[in-house]
Amino acid sequence: MKVITLLLAALLFATRGLAAESLPSWNDTAARQSIIAFVDRVTMPDSPDFVAPPERIAVFDNDGCLWAEQPMYFQAIFIFDRIRQLAPQHPEWKDQEPFASVLKGDIKAALAGGEHALLEMAMATHAGMTTEEFEKTVTDWLATARHPTTGRPYTEMVYQPMLELLAYLRANGFKTFIVSGGGIEFMRPWTERVYGVPPEQVVGSSIKTRYEVRGGKAVLLRLPELNFIDDKAGKPVGIQQHIGRRPIMAFGNSDGDFQMLEWTTSGSGPRFGLLVHHTDSVREWAYDRESHVGRLEQGLDEAETRGWVIVSMKDDWKRVFAFE
Amino acid sequence: MKVITLLLAALLFATRGLAAESLPSWNDTAARQSIIAFVDRVTMPDSPDFVAPPERIAVFDNDGCLWAEQPMYFQAIFIFDRIRQLAPQHPEWKDQEPFASVLKGDIKAALAGGEHALLEMAMATHAGMTTEEFEKTVTDWLATARHPTTGRPYTEMVYQPMLELLAYLRANGFKTFIVSGGGIEFMRPWTERVYGVPPEQVVGSSIKTRYEVRGGKAVLLRLPELNFIDDKAGKPVGIQQHIGRRPIMAFGNSDGDFQMLEWTTSGSGPRFGLLVHHTDSVREWAYDRESHVGRLEQGLDEAETRGWVIVSMKDDWKRVFAFE
């Protein structure tokens, strides 16, 4: 056992040596410094605020926090692409809203029906197949779909500074989770490869499934019925359901993340909350209080009082995307 | 990076050396051999059936598989103890079934109302408090409650061979999960300490919660409303919801685990299913087809056809409990 202890100690030392060079895509502003100071505070063995590794839980929103969300949520684009793809099997969609508008290319009209219309389209494209079949549609879509303005695969529309942050936290003994309003099974097929976050550390919105045995093979059939909405006050609920302990760090970008940051930072002991503010109209997009996606208002108003860090993408990040 | 790779390789080698001495509380029968053969088959780098570490997911039932479940589920005993404890605040229970029978010490009469009565008692004792308050009631109860026949704390009523199996699998790169019909928040306060399974790797039955801010502090209030029953066909659903990939090993002991084993072993590639059969009336209890808890019938009938391993506690285990 002594050999193992020595090896582990050496490994730990080697890892800690990397910390000085971490977060290279962050400017050395107050935001970067506050992250490093917090991580030092909870990981240095002699710190009065030392937190044991199992309690080092960090949660990240996905849309607008780890990857982009403009000109609209990427999952919405997936839904519209799937409707076009499935249209030959649904001749009735030609005369049926909101599908008819999608097929005519009029997304604005398709979304005129609000949440109800979006939900109807989500169910038509996300249910009625097994979990394994759905995973394949996501993987196939990502392999060929391209972002409308950058022409890049969606999995390249991820923020380089946030990838570095995920890796930096893991190197410091944190377990990193995604807690997103997006569909849990829409994210799982690629989060391990892109973010280093395995499927079992992804929390998201979901529909119900039913267990069935088909020709000797067990499957889970996806049903057109909502199971859970992982947004706003649903995020702390989803965190408790999946993780079972209160995180000590939370990262978001919109008012949909407000309660997740509130839940995280109102626990006892050292806590850290951070909101990514989309301020860079050149390298990314600039939006906040009036945006149709990722609306950020309450968070901006209350961050200072609550001690949350606001990251300005324009000022705090050297680079936004890896492909720049 | 080269140094880290070398250290990791050395660590891996040191760990593998421990495998020969693992599972010391198992007799060297076919059951033990089948476990070791399977683990070698999926972990040896030159094996044609090698499984990458992230896919090495093993799921374990709790009641009757990791700890005992006689004379009744320990969570039921917790419920009855809580009813006695809360009775002063509920004078109406004196005349109200099933509570009145519990207070008179007549558990059989209390359970006469079947599932409905049990659910009513569960809600009365598990809801109406925050998640943190509930965690404290579980921790406090475990600190003083003693098993009616052995006089041991419930957390000592765990099977030594299964503790060794959990550790052996983790030493071989497996991630171990509990997937139990029991309450998820009833297990989480102690599974890390007792089994080495952290809260985020526990799947179980649950009630709904509501997010609230009380005097500046965010809490989750437990509601008297079922959220999910993690039993039978619910187990594969719970596994997909929490883990998001099909396990390659599953361990159970009752027909409540049948679908979990079926889901696990009907996937492609190497798969392993095992049922603990309670055959030891001296060191533990002997029961199967006719039992009121942990009924095992379909599993016994179909194990051979399905290639599942049956462990006889009497014949395959040198020791059942650590305190023997």
Overview of this structure, please?
The structure is a homodimer of 324-residue chains. With 324 residues, chain A is α/β, with parallel strands linked by helices. Helix content of chain A is 41%, strand content 17%. The first copy, chain A, contains 13 helices and eight strands. In chain A, strands 1, 2, 3, 4, 5, 6, 7 and 8 form an eight-stranded mixed beta sheet that branches. The relative contact order of chain A is 0.15.
What characteristics describe this protein?
globular, 324 residues, 13 helices, homodimer, eight-stranded mixed beta sheet, alpha/beta
Note the run of SSEs of chain A as H and E. HHEHHHHHHEHEEHEHEEHEH
Largest sheet of chain A: 8 strands, mixed
* Mean pLDDT level of chain A: 94
State the helix count of chain A. 13
User: Globular, elongated, flat, extended or rod-shaped: what is the shape of chain A?
Assistant: globular
Quaternary state of the chains: homodimer
Structural class based on helices, strands and sheet pairing of chain A: alpha/beta
The overall strand count of chain A is 8
Largest interface: A-B, 46 and 46 residues
Low-confidence spans of chain A: 13-18
Gyration radius of chain A, in Å: 21 Å
Percent of residues of chain A in beta strands? 15-25%
First-residue to last-residue Cα separation of chain A: 47 Å
Helix content class of chain A: 40-55%
Sum this structure up briefly.
Two copies of one chain form a homodimer. With 324 residues, chain A is α/β, with parallel strands linked by helices. Chain A has helices at residues 2-17, 30-43, 74-86, 99-104, 107-110, 114-126, 131-144, 160-171, 184-195, 234-242, 258-265, 298-306, 313-316; strands at residues 57-60, 175-183, 202-214, 217-228, 249-252, 272-279, 286-287, 309-312.
